[in-house]
Amino acid sequence: MSTMLSFANNQISNNFLSENDIMVKCPNAFKTEPTNPGVSDKYVQATTIDVIRDMAKLGWYPVEAKQCRNKKGSKGIRSFHMIALQNPTVKVLNNNNEIEGYPRIILTNSHDGFNSFKFMCGYYRLVCSNGLIIADKEFANISIRHINYTFEELTKTVVDILQKLPNQIAVLNDMQNKVLTDEEKTKFAISAIKLRKGYNEEDKVEISQETIDELLSPVRKEDSANNLYNIYNIIQERIIKGNFHYSEKQKKMRKMRMVTSISKDLDINTNLFNLACSYVRAAA
């Protein structure tokens, strides 16, 4: 795969979210006052919708918007939310010069004094409408504090992400060239389910063979090859979207649900990418 950065013929797709769409999906993006009454009088708030409008000036438009749910009976202090943005002219091409997918910039923020603007690099794969986080832990920590927010600082952040993007795509290419043994596939699946269940990697967990087989079963024919990239995509889709059956040995089998927590989704995705990268590094 290769990254094509072409800024000609910038047509706005109907798939991008309007501000009205964002208001319905993520009203926290429009908050102009802190949602936490306990913040300091010195707290400076930068509103997410202003960042979204600034990102549009740079050619990036919202395609997904989510906000966390406050627990029943809470006072609604938490306002963590996520916006995924996509540039219609920044594409990833396959060997046949066809569009494989689109990089995304994942923006998270809150208006409760607990979070700065954070930016991660995502990847939307067309064949399965599947969203990956393609960022190691260092890259995932790009942030702008509210008090420091300016359009110039945002521009520097986007430029930084674009400069690093080809290296991230190169890692995905390395994954395509790494063929996994049956033992490695099983090990990957077990490590992935540990991430989903909140276990540590060193924890001894006897996961049933039925669960492992289901996690490794391709959802579509495009993922039938036994390379790391395909296995990574198969497992990531099942781990995040659920719809697989889980049991530890001698325990009841139950169906896993979709991950709905924004922070858990991003955390699992980031750790899955790092897990996949460990197999590339081991082969180097």
Can you walk me through this structure?
- This protein is α+β, with helices and mostly antiparallel strands and 284 residues long.
- Helix content is 36%, strand content 18%.
- Strands 1, 2, 3, 4, 5, 6, 7 and 8 form an 8-stranded antiparallel β-sheet that branches. Strands 9-10 form a two-stranded antiparallel ribbon.
- Helix 6 runs antiparallel to helix 7 (262-283).
- The two termini are 19 Å apart.
- The string of secondary-structure elements, in order, is EHHEEEEEEEHHHHEEH
The portion of residues forming beta strands comes to 15-25%
Q: Report the major sheet.
A: 8 strands, antiparallel
Total DSSP helices: 7
Give me the count of strands. Answer: 10
Residue-averaged pLDDT: 82
* Estimated radius of gyration: 20 Å
Low-confidence stretches: 3-12
The percent range for helix content is 25-40%
Determine the structural class based on helices, strands and strand pairing: alpha+beta
What is the first-to-last residue Cα distance? Answer: 19 Å
- Globular, elongated, flat, extended or rod-shaped: what is the shape? globular
Please provide a brief summary of the model.
This protein is of the alpha+beta class. The protein has helices at residues 19-25, 48-57, 151-176, 182-197, 209-216, 228-241, 262-283; strands at residues 2-5, 61-67, 81-86, 90-93, 99-109, 117-125, 130-133, 142-144, 245-246, 254-255.
Describe the SSE topology:
Blueprint: E1 2-5, H1 19-25, H2 48-57, E2 61-67, E3 81-86, E4 90-93, E5 99-109, E6 117-125, E7 130-133, E8 142-144, H3 151-176, H4 182-197, H5 209-216, H6 228-241, E9 245-246, E10 254-255, H7 262-283
Antiparallel strand pairs: 1-4, 2-3, 3-5, 4-5, 5-6, 6-7, 6-8, 9-10
